[in-house]
Amino acid sequence: KMEVEQGDGDIAMEQANAYVYWQQRRKQEEDDIRLAKELQQALEEEERLANEARKATKEADKAVVHALEHSGSLPQSVPMTVEATTTTTTTVKKKLSDSDFARQLQEEMEREEDERKRLRDLEREAPVIDILETKPTPTTTVTTSTTTTASKKLSDSDFARMLYEEDQKQLKAPVERPYVSPTVDSEYARMLYEEDQKRLNSGADEFESHVAALKLQAELEAKEKLERARQEREELERQLAEARNRKYGHQGGVVYEPKALPGVEFPDYWETHTTADYEVFEISPHSREWTEVAGHFERTSSGLHVTRIQRHQNRTQWMFYYLQRQLVAKRNGRKGYNEKRLFHGSNAYSIIYKDGFDHRVANLGGSIGAGTYFATHASYSKDYTSERKLLYCRVTLGNIGKGQSGIRLPPTGCQSVANVHGDTGMYVVFDNNQAYPEYTIHY
């Protein structure tokens, strides 16, 4: 028996290590998926900020053009037709994106303003205004006299007249405007604008390509990590199966088919023609087995009727249960293991069939402890399942103590706790191997 217990402890340790390793790998997979999502969110935020920056740049360009138009930097005094003015304004707006052209235009306008100021100063110094304001008279004598007087009075009138006419020609001649040809300027501005747009579009396309590449790389890395974790899990499961097979002497591959441990006895009514680790058998309504199981259910279910009964023959679970039952009997001496047939309701039947009970997922708020609950009456257990079926279980109770909410272990010297009034009540065990789900009752 000591050898059996030691071997069982080794298997339990291997299972515990495998479970811990699997939990760690699962957490790592979840962390990888979370990181991939955060990276995708960061890339989306980066793309949004880039769009806002491009929009802000366009608004700034518009503001600069508007400011230059209303600050007096443009040649407002140059006479133009309506069509020429519209063309020039459009050309200036487009050319302002090129800083060198804008600076050259500003210098040209400053030079023209200085020249007009110089001509106005000369006009004020020379008495040209008398010649311009001289009115013709009806007699030749008055005209001659006036002309002679003006010639004596204005010694430099010819020079002043020449300067005035030159100034008028410069103001009226369209060739003196800052732009040599509106058509040529418009074409040049259009070319500059198209080049700017190409640079902007090229930068946006490059940025979008970079973002798409980062997203694709993150997705590939996440998939690669998930695949690597899946392969590691499969390898771990294979190694665990090999270890179990070595433990039980199996030589035919990695499929775990445990042999009966020395000293373990299976129920005499079980099917013996199969060597599978887990199988389900239908119980005949005319058998003694059906009468016993269905009788207990119908006596305690408040008028419900059994329609089907299945027996679960799980050789691995039974060996663990049998050894735990023997251990409880050894500790209790003459009292023995105190086994009862009790009901259990759940929404996780498929897990319990294959892996047994797990008290670690129990509710801490249970009235008599955080363990696995069983009831003497089916009418109580059916309230804890959404399906029309219950488990009919073997439960090793041993010494029964008094339970209370929140406890995770039974009192010292006890193997279970209970809350029983007469023949009605519920029991709680804190060891997964102290219960075996032998039947499923459909009603």
Describe this structure in words.
- The chain is an alpha+beta fold and 443 residues long.
- Helices cover 57% and strands 12% of the residues.
- The chain has a five-stranded antiparallel beta sheet with strand order 1-2-9-5-3, sandwiched between helices. A four-stranded mixed beta sheet has the order 4-8-7-6.
- The chain is rod-shaped.
- The two termini are 41 Å apart.
- The relative contact order is 0.08.
Spatially, the strands of the biggest sheet line up as 1-2-9-5-3
- Percent strand equals 5-15%
Q: Can you write the helix and strand succession as a string?
A: HHHHHHHEHEHEHEHEEEEE
Radius of gyration: 51 Å
Q: Distance between termini?
A: 41 Å
- Percent of residues in helical segments? 55-70%
Mean pLDDT: 76
**Unreliable spans:** 73-97, 127-155, 175-180, 250-258
Largest sheet: 5 strands, antiparallel
**Morphology:** rod-shaped
Oligomeric state of shown chains: single chain
How many β-strand runs?
9
Tell me the number of helical segments per DSSP (H or I, 4 or more residues long): 11
Concise structural overview:
The protein has 443 residues and is of the alpha+beta class. It is built from 11 helices and 9 strands. The strands form 2 sheets. The protein has a 5-stranded antiparallel beta sheet with strand order 1-2-9-5-3, with helices on both faces.
Highlighted features:
single chain; 443 residues; alpha+beta; 5-stranded antiparallel sheet; 4-stranded mixed sheet; 57% helix; 12% strand; rod-shaped
